[in-house]
Amino acid sequence: MTVDCKDLPRFLDGQMNAAEQGGFRQHLGMCALCEARFRESLQLELLAHRAFPSHAPSSAKRPPSTGRWFGESGSGFKVLVACLAVLLFFPSAGHWGGEDLSWLVKDGPRTLEARVTYRAVDARYQPYVPDRSGAWSRPAVPSLPLQELSRMEARGDLHGIATAYLLHGAPRQALAFLKRLPPSVDRDCDLALLALEQARQGGPLDTRHAHLEEALELLAGVLRVSPRHPQALWNRALTLAELGLTLQAADSFGEVAKLGEVGWSEEASARERALRESTLWRGRAWKDAFAATRDLLTDASAPLPLVAVRDHPGILRLAFYDAVRAAPRRQDVLRLLPLARALDERYGGAVLKTWLSRVAERDFTRRGPLARRYAQLVLGALSPSGAVMEELRRSGEDDLYLGALVLAGSARQPVDSEALVRLAQASEDPWMRVLGELELARADQRDGRWWNAEQRLLEALDTCQKQGLVYRCLGLEHALTELYLDLHRPADAFLHAWNGWGRAQESREWRYEQLFLQELADVARYQHSFTSARAYLEESLVRMPEDCAQRTHVHSNVALLEWQRFRPDAARESLERALECERPLGMTGARVLSEMARSNPRPHDEHWLRRALADLRREGGSPGREALLLVFEGQFALEQSRDAGQALLWRGVSMAEHTPDSVDARKALAFGYSALLSEAGRAGAWNEALALMGRELRVESVPASCLLVVSLQHERTLVLARGPQGELKGAYSSDRREPLRDDASGLVPAELVKELTGCEHVEVLTRPPVHGLTGLLPDSLAWSYRVGRGARSPPAQGGQSSHLVVTEVASPPTLRLPKLGALTPPRVPDPWRVELRGAEATPSRVLREMEDASEVEIHTHGLFSASLSDASMVVLAPDPDGRYALTADKVRQTKLKHAPLVLLATCGAAKTAPFPHESFSLPVAFISAGASAVLAASVEIPDTAGGFFEKVRERIRAGARPSVALRDLRALWLREHPDDARWLSHVLLFE
């Protein structure tokens, strides 16, 4: 939401606090009326400065600024924005021509760690000295000399002006001028610098990551065009280091060092060395400690790694258990007593010493041979299956059998889950009890009870953290991340992956660092942050280049990333590198092979696909997983035999339809129907395609006229249209060369749009990723997205219902959201109106009140936060547990008894998560919960939009069809409020 335009005078007079200034500056960039008035006012101020120079701001000392680098204060800031306003009136592009710019490049250390591309500044190397004193002690932002800026403007040096603002802590002004420059690698490099510095200002985790992704994407584009661009290489290194990807950052600094720039190369070399040495030292220390633990299994006289307990207690404790179990004699067990004491001292208590003493009392004439076989299991000389497992089960040596069961699970062998849980829970050791909880969660997950698995893992993590078992806590974070990725909930997965990544670095657990790097890559890929995903993957590879399994995993995932970015040649190159180790490619590799069969096949692809599928099936899994494998197999076969491919696809689809709650099954349905629809389109079988779409979307009756159908499968597009006469026409193409963004304009051919002319209302049936996008049809048509949901019980008849209005919400102060204007009271008294205001408007209260409402209007802030929700969310007042977000998943779980009309007068409420297998947005969630229609915007909207939604509702109450009411009022509103054109076309209807 935005701030009212009446606040412009307060902003110009400096009467706002820092938070208000930030909110208004955002508003200024999006309000044409305020921008025009802003320019006029500040041009007059500048003219006054020129006419009365004696009244110019003095250079007297100012109080410290509150910002670090982006700080803005007092009259200095007003002069900066004055210059901005005037110069924006006369934009022109130019460059430095050797003029004296000593006023811009001061003596002493440089103020920015990053590098600007403006030659006059970057050509003069100055060392960077980090600010150790704290943000509060920074001096105020100095005002820029107007005369010098005027000279720059006169020679058309917009780049210089942007750099001046950049160096003087005015990033928004710098951004305004950079965007007026023609596209170039230098401009994009400086834009990336701005994104990096924005990320460094703190704020919500997802916002920081969005800025870093933007910076990486811009810099990747620069380096594709100019691989030796010094500033891009430098700033890329800083961005990677900000993400913790230190070896890639070192590589990028190394490239700068090779360029031989005076000063810069020396600093780059020093930075490269520091990053590389600190990272590799951590890896070497972990590997040395791990090697010492292996020696305990093979050498009875190996020194005890007591010193390593301080830095690597996790793997030392893990190895201690195996060493005690593998000790064939009593004296071999007792030899480990100092290690038990050291670990007990590190963790607290005496559980390990107690267990060791009990083991030492066992009968080693019986236990000794079993201990030797256990050592072979740990070292990989024996497989944890078959006769050896049965022997251990019957032996009565429960600790050996428990250890063997854990090893079997790690080796993906069948495990007696009940025995593992029983033995772990019987132990007095909290470490072992965590293993029991993990196994119970895995069993729940295998049986499809993911909600039980989730709750169990969260509770186990809470207990584990209280007990200080960091290594085991990392295992639980890893399990939760994998669970959420399996459920396609990347926002939840991100939180646990990021926490695990940070904890692994703090505790120096190198192996877990690698695991979480790869999971962060998966999360980024699910959220379509492809550049970050690739960076995480490549960092994990350069840390362990000798690991063949690692190389296969990384290159398979990079192949998928490149395929999703419409780079088939790069995808093929990565896939071939994944095959070099001759290991099964896993689920990701199987998907890439099935997709690439359409465009870039190789003779050996069938062999590798069959091997990957066979390996995945050996692991076992749910019916949903098998359905997905059948779909991959069918997609591949379709390019060789249409009949064989369709048969496999239908087997997968049919199996998936019986397990709709499985995420793998939903993926199988989406990918399977995509392939079937595209194949029908390729054959020109329009009626078959229409029937397929109706079946997939569970539409009870497909309209006989005034219908649009759109399906997108990567490079293939299918569009069907029925006009007023009911004749079905279609178009199919396979020439898409880039991903679909946030706008579907141009997706429907003009001749099919023309077919819909004369329709009173057009129903649109679409699938992801098209569903929920704007621009699919022109605003001159009345249309809505039809959301299929299968057979539903009819709305409740009679009984009390309400018109729920949520307004003037007391949002969390930490979000620093501007207060919204109050809703205008209804012109006609509404006896059914129920208002939730202020602190009462919590998520739990709103969800409860919605159940019995026949109308729901929510007037508050809307946000898209990848760290809180996988779709747009509505900001409400905090519940007692601190939760303030009304998210799509919570709405889906609600039953709306009276099929309400829902008006979401919030920013971006229709924004859809970028999931390829299902539409996931607030409007879809409301329809799934029972709403009859939902009106929402997919972009930021002003406070005044509440009046627009109110008038649409009045027309619907008067009997107008929702789509007609929206179309007609949009046209009328646009004539009366032309400045609202920016958001009006982004108001969408879902029915």
Largest sheet: 6 strands, mixed
**CATH fold call of the domain at 9-17 and 62-275:** Serine Threonine Protein Phosphatase 5, Tetratricopeptide repeat
Rg, Å, rounded: 32 Å
Q: So how many helices? A: 43
According to CATH, the homologous superfamily of the domain at 9-17 and 62-275 is Tetratricopeptide repeat domain
What CATH architecture of the domain at 9-17 and 62-275 would you give? Alpha Horseshoe
Low-confidence stretches: 42-94, 133-141, 864-871
Helix content: 55-70%
Number of strands: 14
Strand content: 5-15%
- The geometry reads as globular
How do the strands line up in the largest sheet? 7-6-8-12-13-14
Spatial separation of the terminal alpha carbons: 25 Å
CATH class of the domain at 9-17 and 62-275: Mainly Alpha
Overall SS class: alpha/beta
